[in-house]
TrEMBL record:
<dbReference type="GO" id="GO:0004089">
    <property type="term" value="F:carbonate dehydratase activity"/>
</dbReference>
<keyword id="KW-0862">Zinc</keyword>
<dbReference type="InterPro" id="IPR015892">
    <property type="entry name" value="Carbonic_anhydrase_CS"/>
</dbReference>
<feature type="binding site">
    <location>
        <position position="102"/>
    </location>
    <ligand>
        <name>Zn(2+)</name>
    </ligand>
</feature>
<keyword id="KW-0456">Lyase</keyword>
<dbReference type="InterPro" id="IPR036874">
    <property type="entry name" value="Carbonic_anhydrase_sf"/>
</dbReference>
<protein>
    <recommendedName>
        <fullName>Carbonic anhydrase</fullName>
        <ecNumber>4.2.1.1</ecNumber>
    </recommendedName>
</protein>
<feature type="binding site">
    <location>
        <position position="45"/>
    </location>
    <ligand>
        <name>Zn(2+)</name>
    </ligand>
</feature>
<dbReference type="GO" id="GO:0008270">
    <property type="term" value="F:zinc ion binding"/>
</dbReference>
<comment type="function">
    <text>Reversible hydration of carbon dioxide.</text>
</comment>
<dbReference type="GO" id="GO:0015976">
    <property type="term" value="P:carbon utilization"/>
</dbReference>
<keyword id="KW-0479">Metal-binding</keyword>
<feature type="binding site">
    <location>
        <position position="99"/>
    </location>
    <ligand>
        <name>Zn(2+)</name>
    </ligand>
</feature>
<dbReference type="Pfam" id="PF00484">
    <property type="entry name" value="Pro_CA"/>
</dbReference>
<dbReference type="InterPro" id="IPR001765">
    <property type="entry name" value="Carbonic_anhydrase"/>
</dbReference>
<comment type="similarity">
    <text>Belongs to the beta-class carbonic anhydrase family.</text>
</comment>
<feature type="binding site">
    <location>
        <position position="43"/>
    </location>
    <ligand>
        <name>Zn(2+)</name>
    </ligand>
</feature>
Length: 220
């Protein structure tokens, strides 16, 4: 690898040429406006490239990423992204996406000490503690992925509770919140069925998704 990272600039030129060849005028159109229908809130893991997973081009997916796809009510970064997406871009779907074998979730589950990021992972530990009884029923080798799904459930619930989404729903704006998980082992997305488009949807959606997680991870 070169010090100047010329190989990345070359890959960028190749990518831009391919896009322009396949869709002539694409970048000229993109310059005028972006009109995504979706906000993706995902993990910062380099193995989870949001646009590629759903086959969307730049301008078609608004993306926010952080360690373990957390939506904290005190995180002005995430909240600002959600507000711009909902109020400015008028996205119709907000999708919280976790992924299997997430390192941040593993650290929370196993109480690993990693440094400054421990303070951020504290949010996932809160999810672990909230669902401690359920996790105790899960076989040890499956607990990481169970907590991945529980974390998506709680973060999607947090999105529903934001003032931005609550205000959008109160004025009748179409905003649907989803929770998904991406499988690193197979490249597939899975819907956890916490899907809400009004405040009234949230309690039933939460319980439905929680029951689904229990059914998948706890032996009958």
């Amino acid at each position: 690898m070169s010090t100047e990272l010329q190989e990345l600039f070359q890959k960028n030129r190749d990518w831009a040429a391919d896009v322009e060849q396949n869709e002539p005028g694409f970048f000229s159109r993109l310059l005028v406006q972006q009109t995504p229908q979706y906000l993706w809130i995902g993990c910062a893991d380099s193995r989870v490239p949001a646009n590629e997973l759903v086959g969307l081009l730049p301008g078609e997916l608004f993306v926010h990423r952080n360690v373990a796809n957390v939506v904290a009510h005190s995180d002005l970064n995430a909240l600002s992204v959600i507000q711009f997406a909902v109020d400015g871009l008028k996205v119709q779907h907000i999708i919280v996406v976790g992924h299997s074998n997430c390192g941040g979730v593993r650290a929370a589950l196993q109480d690993l000490r990693l440094g400054l990021v421990d303070n951020w992972i504290r949010h996932v530990k809160d999810v672990r503690n909230l669902h401690a009884a359920l996790l105790e029923e899960v076989p040890p080798e499956r607990r990481i992925d169970a907590l991945v799904e529980l974390n998506v459930l709680e973060q999607a619930h947090n999105v529903c509770d934001t003032t931005v989404v609550q205000d959008a729903w109160s004025r009748g704006q179409d905003v649907v919140v989803h929770g998904w998980v991406y499988g690193l082992h197979n490249g597939l997305l899975e819907d956890l069925n916490i899907t809400a488009r009004t405040p009234a949807d949230v309690p039933a959606a939460y319980q439905r998704a929680l029951a689904g997680i229990r059914a998948r991870y706890v032996a009958a």
